[in-house]
Amino acid sequence: MSEAPALRWIAVVTTAAALAFTYGCGSSDGSQELVPYLGQPVPGLTPVLFAPGVVNTDDIEINGVFTPDGRTFFFARQIDGVFTIFRSSFEGPGWSEPSAMDIYGDGTRVLAVDMTVTADGTSLYFLGRHDHEGEEGPPDLDIWISRREGDTWEPAELVPPPVSTDLPESYPVVVADGSLYFPSQRPDGLGGFDIYRSQRLPDGRFAEPVNLGPPVNTEFPEGDTFVAPDESYLILSSERPGGLGQNDLYVSFREPEGGWSEPVSLGPAINSQKTDFCPMVTPDGKYLFFSRRTGGSWAEASEGEIFWVDIAVVEELRIKERLTSDSSG
Fold first, then answer.
1. Is 120 domain-assigned?
2. What average pLDDT does the chain have?
3. Peptide bond into 68 cis (omega under 30)
4. Fewest C-beta atoms under 10 Å: which of 27, 107, 265, 297?
5. Which among 290, 249, 294, 295 has a CA at the least distance from the CA of 268?
6. Is 9 a domain residue?
7. Ramachandran region of residue 39, left (φ > 0), alpha (ψ -120 to 50) or beta?
8. Chain-centre distance for alpha carbon 32
9. Taking the model in full, what pTM does it have?
10. In the structure, what pLDDT confidence band is assigned to residue 53 with cuts at 50, 70 and 90?
11. Using omega within 30 degrees of 0 as the cis cutoff, is the peptide bond preceding 162 cis?
12. In whole angstroms, what is the distance from residue 150 CA to residue 215 CA?
């Protein structure tokens, strides 16, 4: 694995920034330059809501994912109790109003959430629950993929075994070589949901998923996990003891011998007494997006909001770990 690039993330939002949806910036040649991050002003080390009134509304919203070129933003909004993927694109001179995607291509509204985009911007993986060939009974939580053809996202297809199985999968994240990380509840797990990695093979198929093992996985449930494209660090949501809320966010760094360091809490600057989850870092590595839910379960949820924050909070933890490692070595 390559040395982790310097981490930087940021977050900010004001209602006035919604003006970016109608105005862009012209370049010297008359073309429209990208207005990044939906035109939102960037914050510092304190998490703030992303695009209030546009992305964050009175509905429940989670997830925050940009395509590698920064020109499309995906998030999930709960409509009539069902999470649906929404999309906003920079179409010059500004960003389009977020609209629901018919991700399955059949007009049905069933679960579609937890998105991740490949490095070339042509494939969108997500967590879904939809009927598919070969499944008996109600559909399970599986991983799906939609491929982009021009400006159109094609109807999603199930990612076949050994990734999607008759056991529940969740929150896929794709890394630079096309491999997938995702939580799943499998017989070799340490407790509840564990994090797995499935290597993408030269023929496009996926190898048998491998449990990351301790210290990332524990006897307690591990959940939504972001992994850096170069796999130099990961940020996971976990229910392990010592957290501030039901789920807290932790960071683990890749060690020289190839293993993972003991996950360290992102602390009270990020974590709260609520459920903090859905970590995702922008393609430029500058900002951490995460979601926060009010209510112990989705049945009890009264709020779901999307935040972003400067990634410097994670860089500080990396520096502390290196200093500790050097002093103990």
1. yes
2. 88
3. no
4. 107
5. 249
6. no
7. left
8. 28
9. 0.88
10. very high
11. yes
12. 42
Q: Which two tokens stand for residue 144?
A: 């799906």
Placement of tokens 């035109």 in the chain: 39
Q: Any idea what the CATH number is for the domain that residue 43 is in?
A: 2.120.10.30
136 within a domain of the structure (yes/no): yes
Give φ, ψ of 306 to 5 degrees: -110, 125
Per-residue pLDDT band for 18 (boundaries 50, 70, 90) equals very low
Percent of the chain residues topping a pLDDT of 90: 75
How large a percentage of the chain has pLDDT more than 70? Answer: 87
Q: How far from 322 is each of 8, 158, 226, 255, CA to CA, in Å?
A: 17, 41, 21, 10
Give the C-alpha separation, 114 to 222, whole Å. 15
Q: How many CB atoms lie within 10 A of CB 115?
A: 25
Supply the range of the domain harboring residue 220. 15-328
Closest to 153 in 3D by CA, of 118, 215, 105? 105
**Cα–Cα distance for residue pair 11/140, rounded to 1 Å:** 35
* pLDDT at res. 30: 43
SS3 115: strand
Q: pLDDT confidence of 10, banded at 50, 70, 90?
A: very low
pLDDT at 171 over 80: yes
Query: What is the Cα gyration radius of the chain?
Result: 19
Q: What is the number of domains present in the chain? A: 1
Query: Element (H or E) spanning 184, and its range?
Result: strand 180-184
The shares of helix, strand and coil residues in the chain, as percent rounded to the nearest 5, are 10, 35, 55
Other C-beta atoms closer than 10 Å to the C-beta of 244 total 15
What is the amino acid identity at position 161?
Answer: P
3-state class of 96 per DSSP? coil
Q: Reading across the β-sheet that carries 264-265, which strands appear in turn?
A: 222-227, 233-238, 248-253, 264-265
Q: How far apart are CA 47 and CA 292, in angstroms?
A: 11
pLDDT, average across residues 184-211: 96
| Cis omega (within 30 of 0) for bond into 93 | yes
Q: Which two tokens stand for residue 58?
A: 């009175």
Quick check: is 19 in a domain? yes
